[in-house]
Write a structure and sequence with these properties.
The chain has 192 residues and is α/β, with parallel strands linked by helices. It is built from 7 helices and 6 strands, in the order βαβααββααβαβα. Bound molecules: flavin mononucleotide (FMN).
Length: 192
């Protein structure tokens, strides 16, 4: 069974992480879930749920962000992908600086040192220059920077459509088949 580490940090957009977990469970992936303190605040504010409620699926293991002895803190424990969704600028800055002071940042740095798939989903507007520089560095070092910036060419009709657009791009990165939104065919412009 493929295994992912998913961290929900303190950026707005907790529902991107919630939807991603749904999709990973549906695809049969097991997930080790880390939620930072501000991540939990936003999860409650935006989705009205607690970390424990989010982790109610048996495929999800809720980890303690302060536990640097958890499985994902070690490179010897192999995971197929590490995703920070949403990712705060603070977490991005720490990862780019090599700071692994909690399980979310430590797991991300494990992914980098082991040359494994690491996807960061930033949500901020506008971006501060240190975060932009950090993202440029991370991208050059092989990290996928996948901003929570849904496209509108599929004519979204709901917030769910917008969330699905971003989660679909994450699933594409993981080579997971999905039906989240239509794919661009190239025929759309002529058929207007
Ligand atoms: C309600 C709320 C919304 C926030 N929204 C964002 C945001 O959209 N993007 C961001 O980078 N930081 C945002 N922050 C700030 C981060 O939560 C803060 O930098 C925190 O230290 C991040 O720590 P973490 O990455 O360990 O969760 C928000 C904070 C709160 C309380």
């Amino acid at each position: 069974m493929p295994e992912a580490v998913v961290a929900i940090t303190g950026a707005s957009g907790a529902r991107y992480g919630v939807r991603l977990l749904d999709a990973l469970c549906e695809a049969g992936w097991s997930t080790h879930l880390i939620i930072t303190r501000e991540g939990a605040i936003n999860l409650n504010l935006e989705c009205g749920i607690t970390p424990e409620e989010l982790a109610s699926n048996s495929l999800i293991t809720l980890e303690d962000n302060d536990n640097l002895a958890a499985r994902s803190a070690s490179g010897s424990a192999r995971f197929d992908a590490y995703i920070v969704c949403p990712s705060s600028g603070t977490t991005i800055g720490k990862i780019a600086a090599g700071i692994s002071d909690n399980l979310a940042t430590r797991s991300a740095l494990v992914a980098m040192k082991e040359r494994r798939k690491l996807i960061l989903v930033p949500r901020e507007s506008p971006y501060a220059t240190p975060h932009l520089r950090a993202m440029a560095n991370l991208s050059e070092w092989g990290v996928v920077i996948l901003p929570a910036s849904p496209g509108f060419y599929n004519k979204p009709e709901s917030i769910e459509d917008l969330v699905d657009f971003v989660v679909a791009r994450i699933l594409d990165q993981l080579n997971i088949d999905h039906n989240l939104g239509r794919r661009w065919t190239g025929d759309e412009i002529g058929s207007q």
